[in-house]
Amino acid sequence: MHRTPMTRQPRILSEASERLVKRKPLFIPLKTQYFEAFECGSKTSELRVYGARWNEKTCYIGREVVLSKGYGKKHRLHGMIVFTEIVSARELQSHREALLDCYGHLDMNIITIHIQTPVLRLL
Fold it and tell me: Model's pTM, two decimal places?
């Protein structure tokens, strides 16, 4: 019996587009002081230890984010990742003390997630 070869269906969306469509927003819980800094616009990026949860596959440009004051549902901001950067924690001079306070060492890589949040303008 002769089988007719199956033809591949054309892909309508690129792989990157499919990721954007399928992924839900990235949830980023923050301490009050950092949430409030995002809220007033003085903070535009968040640092996380690079790994399985925080990497270029989960923190890609164009992905929506939900910034949350802690884990509650009352205080939330929405934004979008506009840029990421992976660096050694030792290279981050401006955040050295905070990283040491939180983790106790600098032997790790950090992903810096730059986030654009809507800015409220007064008329």
Answer: 0.75
